[in-house]
Design a protein that fits this description.
The complex is a heterodimer of chains A (about 180) and B (about 375). Chain A is an all-alpha fold and about 180 residues long. Chain A is built from ten helices and one strand. The longest helix of chain A has 23 residues. Chain A is about 75% helix and about 0% strand. Chain A folds into two domains: about 90 residues, Rna Polymerase Sigma Factor, Chain: A (Orthogonal Bundle), CATH 1.10.1740; about 70 residues, Orthogonal Bundle (Arc Repressor Mutant, subunit A). The longest helix of chain B has 20 residues. Chain B is globular and about 70 Å long. Chain B folds into two domains: about 140 residues, bacillus anthracis domain (Immunoglobulin-like, Sandwich), CATH 2.60.40.1630; about 150 residues, Sandwich (Immunoglobulin-like), CATH 2.60.40.1640. In chain B, strands 16, 17, 20, 21, 22 and 23 form a six-stranded antiparallel beta sheet that branches. The N terminus of chain B is likely disordered. Classes of the chains: A mainly alpha (about 180), B mainly beta (about 375).
Chain lengths: ~180, ~375
């Protein structure tokens, strides 16, 4: 999401109202990313809360306003992974589907299949797929966020998509239109 | 286009968002910070402290603003960073590494390169990163170390946060060493340290040389083939800390008319019944590649039992594609003849139709 650079600058300088607006623009993406990791509302909310707290505490350290989204996403992923390490919860997949939505259509059921399959992917694949196709980060941006070579990012996207394809039916429009090799 | 397209993005939109609750959290956190956040933070520190106990490192005394001259002497893990990565079979690296002992300080963060080892395939360096203020338990470093004058870049970073010490970490660099090198020059100029608490730009710059440890290369030059995929096992090199294997996957062009992706990997077992994972360090293609899936790989086995006298390498491959007619992904698993290598007399032999061993559960991804 492109933010008004001026708003980010104001937030960096301590304007809490500016930061409030920026966080409200990002809240849905942050919450959904957290949910895919922790798989329940209560923990996703805690991850979100930690993310907001850390954003408030360290926004003054952000040097480049254009990296606001990248920086915030990194905080969210770190918190979600830290939460998983703490808990190592076992979540029955049926519960996730129940929590997601009531009364699904056929199309929605397919989407739920993808959300389920995504949440079951190993952590490294899940992270790269979410950053690439949900946050629309480039391979280069992902390599910077995760501090790994671009080749590793490409491999993980490739493998993650292959695993997704193996576990569900359907064609991914995202997969088709992006050249990730 | 008749098939139904489903995007990852729209699938995530099915996750219901408790909008009001999130707005409330943002408002409360910014303008009326809740008390319970402190509780959450405390839990993170307790987890970090527990990790220290599990690793058996007791660092109970707080290092309070040490003078820089005393800084290195007061770090209790100098010379023992590899010990933190025992589960990845790095324990033996400490004994065979060269001490580097370089320290750079910038913006209140000190980086010490502790030890380094070059086994002919990879350079592994251990480091400690310390700040006077606690940094939290996540770390990202912008600016990776490189092997000077060598192209290609496969870099891996592992780290642990140790309370009262800082971060202890390992970098593994596996570039494309096209010729034999007795010594390599390493350059590392990290420019930004990112933790969960802050982002610090600074000037840390290291340059040092590492000599190659002794090794025993065993030429294999053995090709095994199954269903259009050939695995060419080129060379196996035994060092005091690792076994490195160089191999190539070669894919028949006709196979790629039906299938999209091919990935060959290795599993190994010794004559004592131990089974090892042999993760690859990275792959590359060269001018001789006939297909897009022809790759050269190097892979490294760590923690070989010192009593082992032979090692058997089991190539396996995953071949996959997406079938647009059935709208289903399909894959097949290929197994190959294995190569048994006698580590004493350095000979090798083919094992036809072997039973592929199963990795211990803790080694599975």
């Amino acid at each position: 999401m492109q933010h008004e650079e001026q708003s980010v600058v104001e937030a960096i300088q301590g304007d809490k109202l500016a930061l409030q607006q920026l966080l409200k623009q990002e809240k849905e993406k942050l919450y959904r990313m957290a949910y895919v990791y922790v798989k329940n509302e209560e923990d996703a909310i805690e991850v979100f809360q930690q993310t907001v707290l850390q954003a408030m505490e360290s926004i003054n350290q952000l040097r480049e306003p254009i990296y606001f989204s990248t920086w915030l996403t990194r905080i969210c992923i770190n918190n979600a992974i830290a939460m998983l390490k703490k808990q190592k919860k076992i979540v029955v997949m049926d519960e996730i589907v129940e929590q997601l939505v009531d009364g699904r259509s056929e199309d929605l059921a397919q989407k739920l299949d993808i959300a389920d399959a995504l949440s079951k992917l190993p952590e490294k694949y899940k992270t790269t797929i979410l950053l690439r196709f949900y946050q629309d980060f480039s391979v280069n941006q992902i390599a910077n966020v995760l501090d790994c070579p671009e080749g590793t990012v490409k491999t993980n996207i490739h493998r993650g998509l292959s695993l997704l394809k193996q576990s569900i039916k359907g064609v991914y429009s995202d997969d088709r239109k992006r050249d990730f090799n | 286009m008749t098939e139904k397209e489903i995007s990852i993005k729209s699938s995530l939109e099915t996750i219901l968002v408790p909008t009001q609750k999130l707005d409330q959290i943002i408002d409360d956190t910014l303008f009326n910070p809740p008390v319970q956040n402190k509780k959450s933070k405390k839990r993170i520190y307790q987890v970090a402290a527990a990790a220290v106990l599990i690793l058996g490192i007791g660092t109970t005394s707080m290092i309070s603003s040490p003078a820089f001259a005393n800084f290195v002497a007061q770090i209790p893990v100098i010379g023992n960073v590899f010990g933190y990565f025992a589960t990845d079979n790095y324990e033996s690296y400490s004994s065979f590494s060269e001490s580097v002992g370089l320290t750079q300080s910038s913006e209140g963060i000190d980086i010490v390169i502790d030890q380094a080892l070059f086994d002919g395939t990879s350079v592994t360096l251990s480091f400690i990163l310390k700040s006077e203020n606690p940094l939290g338990d996540t770390l990202q470093i912008k600016g990776q170390p490189v092997v000077k004058g060598v192209d290609g870049k496969n870099t891996n970073l592992k780290f642990e946060y140790v309370e009262n010490v800082g971060y202890v970490g390992l970098y593994t660099l596996t570039p494309n060493f096209e010729s034999e090198m007795a010594q390599v020059s390493i350059s590392w100029e990290p420019d930004t340290i990112i933790t969960e608490k802050k982002e610090v730009e600074g000037n840390w710059a290291f340059e040092f040389a590492v000599s190659q440890i002794s090794k025993e290369p065993i030429i294999l030059d053995e090709k095994v083939k199954t269903d259009g995929v050939t695995v060419h096992l080129k060379e196996l090199t035994v060092t005091d800390v690792s076994v490195n294997i160089e191999y190539q996957q070669l894919v028949e062009p006709s196979l790629l008319e039906e299938w999209e992706f091919v990935e060959a990997e290795l599993i190994a077992s010794d004559n004592l019944g131990n089974v090892y994972k042999v993760p690859y360090n990275g792959g590359s293609t060269d001018g001789s590649a006939r297909t897009r899936e022809d790759f050269n790989w190097t892979a490294t086995l760590r923690g070989l039992n010192s009593q082992a006298t032979s090692l058997t390498l089991y190539p396996i491959a995953q071949v996959s594609r997406f079938n647009t007619e059935t709208e289903e992904s399909e894959s097949k698993h290929l197994e190959f003849d294995a190569i048994k290598v006698d580590l004493i007399n350095q000979s090798h032999s083919l094992v036809e139709d072997p039973t592929i061993p199963t990795l211990p559960e803790e080694d599975l991804d």
